[in-house]
Structures are given as structure tokens and as C-alpha cells.
């Protein structure tokens, strides 16, 4: 059986999602703008983990460099929405 020419490292990522309904906060219940308003924060790949690939000679081939495999890395998204 032929040996695999590439060695792929293991990869585990951590994601976080947090949301806040403004209308459910006790001090915001009387505010008209807070009703049906929500803010959310999402963090994908929180620790910016990337997979490494090594060839048989120990070098990383250009096509498998971390920037090509996962060009985004850590992503932060803040969303505010209001339903009228």
C-alpha cells in the first residue's frame, strides 16, 4: 500500500453565539423602539485555529497554505434587527 504524500493536522474550532432581546430587559420594556428589537454577536473560529498540511519532505505545498484552506480565519458578525 502506498504512503499518503500529505499529513493533515487535526482541527477543532470553537464558535460562540450571543443574542439580546431588548424588549425583555426590565428597564427597556417601556421603550417603544425596544419592542421586537434584537442584537446578536456571532464569533466563528474564536481561537483562529487553522489546519496545517505537510508534504513528504516536511514543507507545506502552496495550495495547502493556511490562507488558502481557510481564508477568513476568525469572523465576528454583529447584527441588529427590528421587526416592525
What does this structure look like?
This protein has 84 residues and is mainly β. It has one domain (6-72). The protein is built from one helix and five strands, in the order E-E-E-E-H-E. The chain has one helix at residues 66-69; strands spanning 6-8, 16-21, 37-44, 53-55, 75-82. A three-stranded antiparallel beta sheet has the order 2-3-5, with no helix packed on it. A two-stranded antiparallel sheet has the order 1-4. The longest helix is centred in the last third of the chain and has 4 residues, at 66-69. It starts with 5 loop residues before the first strand and ends with a strand.
How many β-strand stretches? 5
What order do the helices and strands follow? Answer: EEEEHE
Can you tell me the overall shape?
rod-shaped
Share of helical residues: under 10%
**Strand order across the biggest sheet?**
2-3-5
Largest sheet: 3 strands, antiparallel
List low-pLDDT spans.
none
| Structural domain tally | 1
Strand content: 25-35%
Q: Based on helices, strands and strand pairing, what is the structural class?
A: mainly beta
| Count, helices | 1
User: What is the mean predicted local confidence, pLDDT?
Assistant: 92
Our measurement of the CA-to-CA distance between the termini, rounded to an integer number of angstroms, reads 64 Å
Amino acid at each position: 500500500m502506498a504512503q499518503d504524500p500529505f499529513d493533515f493536522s487535526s482541527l477543532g474550532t470553537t464558535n460562540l453565539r450571543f443574542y439580546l432581546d431588548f424588549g425583555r430587559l426590565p428597564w427597556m420594556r417601556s421603550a417603544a423602539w425596544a419592542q421586537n428589537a434584537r442584537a446578536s454577536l456571532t464569533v466563528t473560529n474564536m481561537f483562529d485555529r487553522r489546519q496545517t498540511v505537510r508534504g513528504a519532505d516536511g514543507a507545506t505545498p502552496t495550495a495547502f497554505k493556511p490562507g488558502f484552506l481557510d481564508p477568513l480565519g476568525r469572523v465576528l458578525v454583529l447584527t441588529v434587527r427590528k421587526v416592525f
